[in-house]
């Protein structure tokens, strides 16, 4: 993974440029020939291939059409659009604190109809209680040395989470059993959080699955990720937030989610695992 937003964006630009060059060569075309077919000069083709100029959506469609590769245009357009936002360091996102970061995601949550989340580390944000969110965000603020606006950030996160009870949304959420035992905050905080998980399981909009320690796996635990409809997937790394919108990459996370859900347990079995975690607090 790149060490900075700029290096990450440049690598993504180079990847798009390299793919366009491969498409041109696969069509047995040279730069000048492709330029003639697209109706621009050869210098533009050279700048695009060398990642000196970012192609527009129109450029990519023309390029793929000239090469007989129209079926690859949409993936390339999505990758090209995502270049500057696909990898953003937390220090850039949280330089004014955590509240604005919570608020910035509200439009995405409100327009998403099918929300899928997998977590191997913490209770997903939309299911967090006030005390749990406070303990988590306080730890985040301290570790990342952000301005301390934890109270405001928690309020913003809880306001964002209202989507599980309003509007036309469906939430499919999977957590590793270990999430139930990672203690953030006091015993009372964890007990309240786990009890809240039992409560939200009854909501018709929420499907909550727990992947047991004992599950026979055909997929290893991976980084926590969210999928918003089939349009976007987001991951939270220690150093940065990663967003992918390329259809093939979003599909990769969707396939991982489908594997995880097959060895999760639901309903009474999930309740039993959560209740067992509550009992362990005592």
From TrEMBL:
GO molecular function: DNA binding
Domain DUF5753: 110-275
Alphabetized InterPro entries for the sequence: Cro/C1-type_HTH, DUF5753, Lambda_DNA-bd_dom_sf
Domain of life: Bacteria
Stored Pfam families: DUF5753, HTH_31
Name under which the protein is recorded: DUF5753 domain-containing protein
Gene source species: Kitasatospora kifunensis
